[in-house]
Amino acid sequence: MDPVWALRQIAFQLERSGAPTYRVRAFRRAAEVVASLSPGELADLVRAGTLRQLAGIGEVTAQVIAQAAVGQEPDEVDILEDGSLDQTEELLGQLDVVVASVHSKLRMPSTPMTQRMVAAIRNPHTDVLGHCTGRIVTGRGRPQAEFDAEAVFTACRESGVAVEVNCRPERQDPPDDLLQLAVELGCVFAIDTDAHAPGQLDWLDAGCIRAELFGIGPDRVINTRSAPLMTSRGV
Questions:
Q1: Of 137, 163, 160, nearest to 149 (Cα)?
Q2: Which residue has the higher pLDDT, 139 or 203?
Q3: Alpha-carbon dihedral sign for residues 128, 160, 162, 180
Q4: Are strands 99-100 and 162-166 parallel, antiparallel or unpaired?
Q5: For FRET with 77, which of 7, 14, 98, 165 sits at 20 to 30 Å CA-CA?
Q6: Which helix (H) or strand (E) element contains residue 190?
Q7: 3 state DSSP class of 187
Q8: How many CB atoms lie within 10 A of CB 195?
Q9: Which helix (H) or strand (E) is 100 found in, with range?
Q10: Architecture per CATH, 89-230
Q11: C-beta separation of 145 from 134 below 8 A
Q12: Those residues with Cβ within 8 angstroms of residue 191's Cβ, 6 or more apart along the chain or in another chain
């Protein structure tokens, strides 16, 4: 399998599923880097396990390149279908904050989707459940995923995982009824812009307004806390 083709296909699928722009760009950048190498140079790097020495190649893209170069189908990247996360335990352990979000197979039936989300929430590395329904409310739109919201938000409360109040205008996730349920169940929240560019950080105000409307005070918003408190389990 051609590693350049594999990287571009993953970028295409991520973009199609509505994944964050930085993830799409990471795979496209990696494809450009690999395309600039001769077959011999690429083979030597794969053989030596030194792909990550190249600027623009990270842990995940290096794994994709190595797998494709030896004819294997690369692993795709997401909250996986079984609820496991798409990064290695080593990498997850180095991150200050892990936001786990479903970006693929959003039309799964309710029961397996609920199981998938609860498994991700209970992962000890997860700090925030991102845009829980995956809906898009502008343009052609995208319906929200179906899951047992009470079970999911109860798992968040029990595991100390914050529910993201997503501020992107096209998401406004969770919807009002689910946000109200999360409040009633005693969840804590992260007000996130989901910004893909610096100017989009201004969207934070919209999330703060929504939080205020639903009676979410600063004591239930992890963004208001100091870094040590925000990144500890049991927030």
A1: 163
A2: 203
A3: positive
A4: unpaired
A5: 165
A6: strand 189-192
A7: coil
A8: 16
A9: strand 99-100
A10: Alpha-Beta Barrel (3.20)
A11: yes
A12: 164, 165, 167, 204, 207, 208, 211, 221, 223
Residues with Cβ within 8 Å of 138's Cβ and at least 6 positions away in sequence, in order, are 169, 170
Helix, strand or coil, per DSSP, at residue 165? strand
In the sheet where 128-129 sits, what is the strand order? 99-100, 128-129, 162-166, 189-192
Whole-prediction pTM: 0.66
Which uninterrupted H or E stretch holds 25?
A: helix 21-35
The closest of 114, 123, 132, 49 to 88, measured between CA atoms, is: 123
Q: Higher pLDDT residue, 17 or 187?
A: 187
Q: What CA–CA distance (Å, rounded) separates 214 from 216? A: 6
Partner residues linked to 189 by β-bridges: 163, 221
End-to-end CA distance of the chain: 44
- How high is the mean pLDDT of the chain? 86
Indicate the range of 42-46, 87-91, 173-177 predicted with least confidence: 87-91
Cis peptide, bond prior to residue 169, ω within 30 of zero: no
- What type of residue is 35? A
Numbers of helices and strands, H then E, in the chain? 10, 4
